[in-house]
Amino acid sequence: MAKILMKGNEAIGAAAIKAGCKYFFGYPITPQNEVPEYMSRELPKNGGVFLQAESEVAAINMVYGASGCGARVMTSSSSPGIALKQEGITYIAGAELPCVIVNIVRGGPGLGGIQPAQSDYNQVTRGGGNGDYKLLVLAPANLQEMVDLMQEAFDAADYYRNPVMLVGDGMIGQMMEPVEFREIKTKYTLSEKTWATTGTKGQRPHNIINSLFLDPAQLEEHNHKLQKKYDDMKANEVRYESVGVEDADIVLVAYGTTSRIVRNAIATLKEEGIKAGIIRPISLWPFPMAAFDAIPETCKAIVSVEMSMGQMIDDIKIASNGRWAVDFYGRSGGMIPTPDGIVAKVKEIMGGVK
Amino acid sequence: MLNEKVICAGFGGQGVMLMGQLISYAGMIEGKEVSWLPSYGPEMRGGTANCAVMVSDKPIGSPVITDNATTAIIMNLPSLDKFETDVIADGNLLINSSLIEKKAAREDLKVYYVPANEIANDLGNLKTANMVMLGAYLELTKAVEIESVLSALKKTLGDAKAHLIDINREAIKKGAEAVRA
Question: What is this model's ipTM?
Answer without folding.
Answer: 0.94
